[in-house]
Amino acid sequence: MTDADIELQHIWLEVQAERWHNIPRFLFSFYCYKHNLVSKTNKPCWETARNELSASSSVQARKNSVIDPLVPEDAVVGLLKTLYKDGEMSFDAMAKTLDTFLHYVVVSKQEHAKLKPNMPASWYQGHEKPLMARFDLAGISIKSR
User: I need a surface site. Which of 2, 73, 89, 107 has the fewest CB within 10 A?
Assistant: First the structure.
């Protein structure tokens, strides 16, 4: 079992216990382990993540930048909660939701200040859920890595 699998199991236990408020603490760690954004001691590492993640076009110096989720962590938890309440939750459904909606990028501090804390209202109401919706609204473009 990998460290990413262990973090995924932590998330699963929190979902099963309906402890939604605890889930965000595991999301970044899970993402780091899954994408090998770890330190030399195999711990989730903000520095490694900041250097390796895709970044906005305006980021010049990564050490003065911020890591932001494309979809806010609370919105990802909300998607998990909806699956659970609709009776559609399974371990695989949870893993697929995280694979689809849990992504982090690097932005400048100025761009971070322009980002809304939530996705646009249309994102919650529609069937299509574009990952870049709140970044597009703030005029932030991300360069692929």
Answer: 2
Q: How many whole angstroms from its chain centre is CA 36? A: 15
Number of domains observed in the structure of the chain: 1
> Residue 1 corresponds to which tokens in the numbers above?
């079992």
Beta-bridge partner residues of 66: 107
Locate tokens 């859920």: which residue? 129
Q: Hey, what are 75's tokens? A: 């919105």
The Cα 69–Cα 9 span in angstroms is 21
What does the pLDDT look like over 67-101, one tens digit per residue?
A: 999 999 999 999 999 999 999 999 999 999 999 99
Domain housing 63: 3-143
Query: CB–CB of 82/124 below 8 Å?
Result: no
pLDDT tens digits, 1-18: 999 999 999 999 999 999
Half-sphere exposure of 126 (CA within 13 A, CB side): 10
Distance from C-alpha of 135 to C-alpha of 116, rounded to nearest angstrom: 9
Tell me how far the alpha carbon of residue 1 is from its chain's centroid.
Answer: 22
